[in-house]
Amino acid sequence: MDLFIHQVIAGFATGGIYACMALAVVMIYQAIHHLNFAQGEMAMFSTYLGWQLLAWGAPYWAVFPLVMAISFAGGLAIERIVVRPIENAPVLSHVVIFIALFAIFNSAAGFIWGFTIKPVPSPFGEGALYPGAPIGKHQAGMLVVTMIVLSLLWAFFRFTRVGLSMRAASVNPESARLVGVRVSLMNGLGWGMASAIGALAGLLIAPVVFLEPNMMLSILLYGFAGAVLGGLSSPLGAVLGGFIVGIVENLAGTYIPVIGGELKLSIALFLIVAVLLVKPAGLLGRRTVQRV
């Protein structure tokens, strides 16, 4: 029973990172109705920026907001410079652009910082939270920071005028324009916030998986799984899906000997396929009905 509780708590902590990535995926999907395959590489590049600032002697808790601010500006710039000109282009054009962004960020990180694995210190300390605790200090810190950020985002989208405008622009852009919402600006803000959330996920997970140009590939896949499970039309569903994926992944890796630690990534793929077959809209997603 102790092992089960330990794995659930650890999965919940890791699921917070997946929830952040899933939320970033959904925010961009709601803005442009396409999946951003470069989301993980953008987060990875932001993590390298954070590592470089730490190497130069900057304090971690000053690096954290600074990197998120830089990532926000970078995401907004990508939306304005790269995505906006092709907003009416065919789907394949968007796919090619996102694959190109994936390759650019991955190669640029390797070119600037090299492809060797770099350890990243944890700001929360090492070891167990307390003697005999089922969760480590870094896992507890990840969970607390993630829950604070997700709570702030919920309040932002629920109670602020800009947040409500972003929700309106994603649900019904035509009606939003009629009431004076600048949909293009809201889409840009969505890209910026998604990039900042991705940077948050990268900075928190880097001490666990170590820093290298491909570090976010599996994290993005888990984020995709969480987004599909919760529903690509529901930010709340994406967060819920991310936590579920984290818990299921940990329990499956522990109690199913065939999976172990090597095949845990297959859990994400299985969840994506299963949800698309059984409930394509996801747990909290909206079904789209079109009149033909």
TrEMBL record:
<dbReference type="GO" id="GO:0022857">
    <property type="term" value="F:transmembrane transporter activity"/>
</dbReference>
<feature type="transmembrane region" description="Helical">
    <location>
        <begin position="189"/>
        <end position="209"/>
    </location>
</feature>
<dbReference type="GO" id="GO:0005886">
    <property type="term" value="C:plasma membrane"/>
</dbReference>
<comment type="similarity">
    <text>Belongs to the binding-protein-dependent transport system permease family. LivHM subfamily.</text>
</comment>
<dbReference type="InterPro" id="IPR001851">
    <property type="entry name" value="ABC_transp_permease"/>
</dbReference>
<protein>
    <submittedName>
        <fullName>Amino acid/amide ABC transporter membrane protein 1 (HAAT family)</fullName>
    </submittedName>
</protein>
<keyword id="KW-1133">Transmembrane helix</keyword>
<keyword id="KW-0812">Transmembrane</keyword>
<feature type="transmembrane region" description="Helical">
    <location>
        <begin position="12"/>
        <end position="32"/>
    </location>
</feature>
<dbReference type="InterPro" id="IPR052157">
    <property type="entry name" value="BCAA_transport_permease"/>
</dbReference>
<dbReference type="GO" id="GO:0006865">
    <property type="term" value="P:amino acid transport"/>
</dbReference>
<feature type="transmembrane region" description="Helical">
    <location>
        <begin position="265"/>
        <end position="285"/>
    </location>
</feature>
<keyword id="KW-0813">Transport</keyword>
<feature type="transmembrane region" description="Helical">
    <location>
        <begin position="91"/>
        <end position="115"/>
    </location>
</feature>
<feature type="transmembrane region" description="Helical">
    <location>
        <begin position="135"/>
        <end position="157"/>
    </location>
</feature>
<feature type="transmembrane region" description="Helical">
    <location>
        <begin position="58"/>
        <end position="79"/>
    </location>
</feature>
<keyword id="KW-0029">Amino-acid transport</keyword>
<keyword id="KW-1003">Cell membrane</keyword>
<dbReference type="Pfam" id="PF02653">
    <property type="entry name" value="BPD_transp_2"/>
</dbReference>
<keyword id="KW-0472">Membrane</keyword>
